[in-house]
Write a sequence for this structure.
């Protein structure tokens, strides 16, 4: 029993088909060391509960303002304004909101309860050749909990996939990889300074861990979020292709994931500013997607659009 082991989760996605083989249940851990400008889950960044606001649902009734004894919420004609430094996350405001315009993102699950939720879709997952994927955020930011959950899943016969940036120590990467059947590894940029500019961290550790996975024979696929204006240029794609081609890697599968701009609305829900420096992030055209796929395929890589 693991009733005293807690995982901090912000979403559980059932019947997922893009996070590993078959039909899966995806567990989203909250907390990430990266700050990718295009991240479609910015609510996953901080490893604490946070208040989110859907302005379109707000009827400006003032119930939340009256409920908040900390005066963390104010209301005017532009909607709700929030002072997180005053908030103690008591959730009184969300309980009083009649339209659920306010919600708390992230809660603790003990692993026993989490396994009960996962078991509900066992037949669908097993029959489809699927399983469970740990995602985020960054599951490797919570190595002890993630490792215990992976071992539980293995003991219960589930296929285990981990979606990760690999921005973690070699010790953690080795432990998680050994407890998984498949790793889905995000690869953003090859230039270190550009990687730091757009994600907030260096890519040296990530590239080193990718090579280590290949050399040790662990099964993994590469996922590249493709953003016009960031990483779809020929120089980056050629360097990416040459790096991946150089690996002693059996899988050799690369998923290209075209950028979409849902992140802007999520930042609005968080009372944060999306892309404050005004970088030109654009959805790649069909021609650009095909061109990037051709570059990767010319280096003997199996390329899939999406997934």
């Amino acid at each position: 029993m693991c009733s005293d082991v807690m995982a901090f989760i912000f979403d559980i996605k059932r019947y997922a088909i893009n996070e590993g083989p078959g039909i899966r249940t995806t567990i989203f851990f909250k907390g990430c060391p990266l700050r990718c400008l295009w991240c479609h889950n910015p609510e996953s960044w901080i490893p604490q509960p946070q208040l989110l606001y859907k302005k379109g649902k707000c009827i400006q009734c003032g119930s939340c303002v009256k409920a908040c004894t900390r005066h963390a919420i104010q209301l005017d004609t532009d909607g709700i304004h929030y002072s997180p430094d005053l908030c103690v996350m008591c959730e009184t405001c969300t309980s009083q909101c009649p339209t659920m315009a306010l919600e708390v993102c992230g809660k603790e699950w003990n692993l026993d309860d989490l396994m009960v939720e996962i078991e509900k879709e066992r037949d669908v997952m097993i029959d489809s050749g699927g399983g469970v994927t740990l995602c985020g955020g960054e599951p490797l930011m919570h190595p002890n909990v993630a490792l215990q959950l992976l071992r539980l899943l293995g003991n219960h016969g589930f296929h285990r996939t981990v979606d990760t940036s690999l921005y973690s120590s070699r010790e953690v990467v080795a432990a998680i990889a050994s407890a998984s059947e498949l790793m889905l590894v995000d690869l953003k940029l090859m230039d270190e300074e550009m990687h730091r500019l757009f994600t907030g961290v260096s890519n040296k550790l990530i590239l080193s861990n990718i090579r280590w996975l290949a050399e040790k024979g662990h099964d993994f696929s590469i996922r590249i979020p493709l953003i016009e204006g960031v990483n779809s240029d020929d120089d980056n794609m050629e360097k990416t292709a040459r790096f991946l081609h150089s690996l002693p890697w059996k899988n050799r599968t690369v998923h290209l994931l075209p950028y979409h701009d849902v992140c802007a609305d999520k930042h609005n829900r968080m009372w944060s500013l999306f892309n404050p420096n005004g970088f030109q992030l654009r959805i790649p055209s069909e021609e650009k997607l095909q061109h990037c796929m051709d570059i990767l395929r010319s280096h003997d890589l199996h390329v899939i659009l999406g997934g």
User: Anything to note?
Assistant: The chain is about 30% helix and 25% strand.
